[in-house]
Amino acid sequence: MMGLNDADRARVEAAVKAAETRTAAQFALVVAHASDDYALYPILWSALIALIVGDLAALIWSDLAALWVVVIEAVLFIAADLILHLKPLRFRCVPARVRKSHAARLARLEFAALVHDRTPGDVGLLLFVSEAERHVEILVDRGIAAKIPETAWQQIVADFVAAIKAGRVAEALIGAVDAGAALLATHFPPQPGAPNTIPDRVTEI
User: Fold this and answer.
1) 124-173 pLDDT, tens per residue?
2) pTM of the shown model
3) Is there a contact between 203 and 12 (Cβ–Cβ < 8 Å)?
4) 68 and 107 share one domain
């Protein structure tokens, strides 16, 4: 998971617990290895490659029997599909806007499952990361959105991405949590005795 070992995961979860002593808001952290398997896209590209090469072969060798064209297309389709289904290549087959759309959709599903309507005053926050899509997003509940504009989270996301690119995974997550707590503490000071309704752990999917 993004290079996190057990010790790193413990540090991140300790940072979440510490952050929630500074603010009434609560944090959920979700790391998805991928937001979809995108199995359809290698098939589509393989079919396209097989059809194009088969048509070119028929044009170049006009006396080529139709059976051989079909054989060429079938072999190319199978070979290309096997190669393009390899993970590093599979995600490259998917248009960027599709990857972004799938990651954003999964983020909202996780927000609905883990955060929405879980906290008194609607003060939950989700830090969502999808590795394959290189997608990072912070989603906040209604209580937070009413007081803190969406643009306020952009610098936290930018700092997180920079730390990830530098290979500092645990530090990226901890930094995002700490920065979020600092931003939230002004508007949502801690409420002693308030229930902890969002688990203080990193959720992997």
Assistant:
1) 999 999 988 889 999 999 999 999 998 999 999 999 988 888 778 889 99
2) 0.81
3) no
4) no
Q: How many structural domains does the chain have?
A: 2
Report the alpha-carbon distance of residue 183 to residue 181 in Å, rounded.
5
Burial (CB < 10 A; 0-12, 13-18, 19+), residue 19, is buried
Q: Are residues 165 and 121 in the same domain?
A: yes
Helices (H), the chain: 6-19, 40-60, 66-84, 87-90, 96-114, 142-145, 154-165, 169-187
Q: What is the pLDDT of residues 67-86, one digit of tens each?
A: 777 888 888 889 888 888 88
Are both 136 and 185 inside the same structural domain? yes
CB 45 within 8 A of CB 93: yes
Instruction: Report angle CA 84, 107, 186 to the nearest 5 degrees.
Output: 145
> Are 53 and 127 part of one and the same domain?
no
- Residue 1: inside a domain, yes or no? no
| Residue carrying the six token digits 């054989």 | 71
Question: Strands of 124-130's sheet, edge to edge?
Answer: 135-140, 124-130, 26-32, 202-204
Q: Give buried/exposed letters for 99-138 (b at 16+ CB in 10 A, else e).
A: bbebbbebbeebbeebbbebbeebbbbbbbbbbbbebbbb
Cα distances (Å, whole numbers) of residue 125 to 26, 159, 180: 6, 17, 9
- The residue type found at 159 is D
